[in-house]
UniProtKB/TrEMBL annotation:
<dbReference type="GO" id="GO:0008276">
    <property type="term" value="F:protein methyltransferase activity"/>
</dbReference>
<dbReference type="InterPro" id="IPR029063">
    <property type="entry name" value="SAM-dependent_MTases_sf"/>
</dbReference>
<dbReference type="InterPro" id="IPR014008">
    <property type="entry name" value="Cbl_synth_MTase_CbiT"/>
</dbReference>
<keyword id="KW-0949">S-adenosyl-L-methionine</keyword>
<dbReference type="GO" id="GO:0032259">
    <property type="term" value="P:methylation"/>
</dbReference>
<keyword id="KW-0489">Methyltransferase</keyword>
<comment type="pathway">
    <text>Cofactor biosynthesis; adenosylcobalamin biosynthesis.</text>
</comment>
<keyword id="KW-0169">Cobalamin biosynthesis</keyword>
<protein>
    <submittedName>
        <fullName>Precorrin-8W decarboxylase</fullName>
    </submittedName>
</protein>
<dbReference type="InterPro" id="IPR050714">
    <property type="entry name" value="Cobalamin_biosynth_MTase"/>
</dbReference>
<keyword id="KW-0808">Transferase</keyword>
<dbReference type="GO" id="GO:0009236">
    <property type="term" value="P:cobalamin biosynthetic process"/>
</dbReference>
């Protein structure tokens, strides 16, 4: 996986590289996929998706964060056609998306309704707050989207008194699903 350069700060943390690695696996993007992201912020997920998918649409409702996404995107090599939209989801979402990532929890009920209405194959949502994770899991389940919930926590080592200790990042709850059920062999039908 190529390094993502994020020289510009959005005053909100990017999705950590370890979380993006799991996200990339769950999204399983290919060169013919149209990927959409709700809440692009620093552009870290946008950049990685633009290296795997054919088309990327990134939504960000805050103009200053969309500008950061644009600058960070320009600082990286990508191959996809990328459209950045200053928009609120679900209104700004295209209707021909194959894979969708929700990086935040704002309007997620309406975004999940849009995913069902437009038959989005793969939907992944990251959540860092326990109460939101529970409510979002129920929202995925009610819409028939839920395939799995993954909770993980990454720790990074640092030197302490000549030995290694660890600082832990916040846990991440990753809700994974979509409107196209997984094939019997564990892969996606395409």
């Amino acid at each position: 996986m190529a390094h993502v350069s994020l020289p510009h700060d959005a005053k909100a943390g990017p999705t950590k590289s370890e979380v993006r690695a799991v996200l990339s696996n769950k999204l399983d993007l290919g060169p013919t996929d149209h990927f959409a992201e709700v809440g692009s912020c620093t552009g870290a997920v946008t950049i990685e998706a633009a290296r795997a998918a054919g088309r990327v649409t990134a939504l960000e409702r805050k103009p200053n964060r969309l500008e950061v996404t644009e600058k960070n995107l320009a600082a990286n090599d990508t191959t996809a056609e990328v459209e950045l939209r200053e928009a609120e989801a679900p209104e700004g979402l295209p209707d021909d998306v194959d894979a969708l990532f929700l990086g935040g929890s704002r309007n997620y009920h309406a975004v999940l309704d849009h995913a069902v209405e437009t038959d989005i194959d793969r939907v992944v949502m990251n959540v860092s707050r326990l109460e939101v994770a529970g409510a979002a899991t129920e929202a995925f389940r009610e819409r028939g989207l839920l395939e799995e919930v993954v909770q993980f926590q990454v720790s990074h080592g640092y030197e302490l008194a000549g030995a290694t200790s660890f600082d832990s990042d916040n846990p991440v709850y990753m809700l994974v699903g979509g409107t196209n059920p997984a094939a019997a062999d564990g892969g996606r039908e395409r």
